[in-house]
Amino acid sequence: MRFLYACFVIVLCALIFCEYVADFVVLQKCKWPEIKRKKYVDDPLRAMILADPHLLGPHRGHWLDKLYREWHMTRAFQAASRLFQPDVVFVLGDLFDEGDMVSDKQFQEYVWRYLKMFHLPPGIPLISVAGNHDVGFHYKMHPFFMSRFESYLNNSSVNLYTIKQIHFVVINSMAMEGDGCMFCTQAEDQLKNISRTLHCMKYPLEAECARTRRHPYSQPILLQHFPTYRISDTMCEEHDAPYIEAFRERFHVLSKDATDMLGELLKPRLAFAGHSHHFCHSVNRLGIDEYTVASFSWRNKVNPSFMLATITPDDYVVSKCKMLPQQFVYNSYLSAGILCLIVIGFQLRKCIQRRQQSSVVDHRKVNYLD
């Protein structure tokens, strides 16, 4: 029975390591990037940015797939939040896989699961961006989908957040179609209002700005689900897509016109997006750094990652943090299984040898008595 005990210990150790410890071990390799310039370094903003968790709903995927992969997303996020203790966390859309397919009751359960998985200590905001799987592509967007996303996750088409004097503009990419629809018109009006707000931050002594109290100005940071316009990942300085796919405007990326409008109204200094499920660092059409964040889910990417950004009002530095690869877990369990087989084989060999020795002794006894 010793070999069964040994196998139990091996499997238990593999289980504890893979399910509770491995995320911490892998994420220990990541560090907050440091800004070398001295100004504002004493109190920079530290932002953790992830994308496309795609929580499964009632219609797609096997329940075991949902259970196991979401368990690992939860473990990875909780390990990351404890290790890095960010000031803010952004999730860049496609929080749900079936957000535009479920009833209101099912959506409430979706939101409950999401907030439970991505739970943060008090005082650390979780800012959730709308994606096409949350409210539908432009052709499918409906006031019902939009209003419930806004009410449950406190995020409208366009929002301005100011944290530690850093300005973030969060945008619903599907409302950037520019076709005069209700959602597009509302988003463009909100963008113009934010543009005026930023202008008054920059020029507080102008007559139209004098009576309004504003934060100090710094160029905003753009966060949305779709990347700004690019033809493909061939434009990336770094990327991890397994193959190059040509991108379609308004489907894979924003249109040229929408990208130019954002540049003209907001004059951002940095941009983050998701949607493609693969990492990309590029200098985009606006001439600024843009990071497309890989999917946070094993279901979309076997080697997921997220971004760590250290930001001050006049500078920033961004690094990619690789998460626990799916294959590492599979290999660990496979190794534990092989080790168990070796132990069992070794014990069986010993048993066979003992029986052979016993039979030889018995044979000798019989010969002696004869």
From TrEMBL:
Keywords: Hydrolase, Manganese, Membrane, Metal-binding, Transmembrane, Transmembrane helix
Reported cofactor(s): Mn(2+)
Any one GO biological process: endoplasmic reticulum to Golgi vesicle-mediated transport
Bilayer topology term: Multi-pass membrane protein
An annotated GO cellular component: endoplasmic reticulum-Golgi intermediate compartment
Transmembrane segments: 328-348
Keyword field contains Ribosomal protein: no
Subcellular localization: Membrane
Record has Transmembrane helix as a keyword: yes
Domain spans labelled Calcineurin-like phosphoesterase: 46-278
Gene3D superfamilies, alphabetized: 3.60.21.10
Listed Pfam families: Metallophos
GO molecular function, one term: metal ion binding
Family of the protein in this entry: Belongs to the metallophosphoesterase superfamily. MPPE1 family.
Protein name: Metallophosphoesterase 1 homolog
Gene: LOC117135109
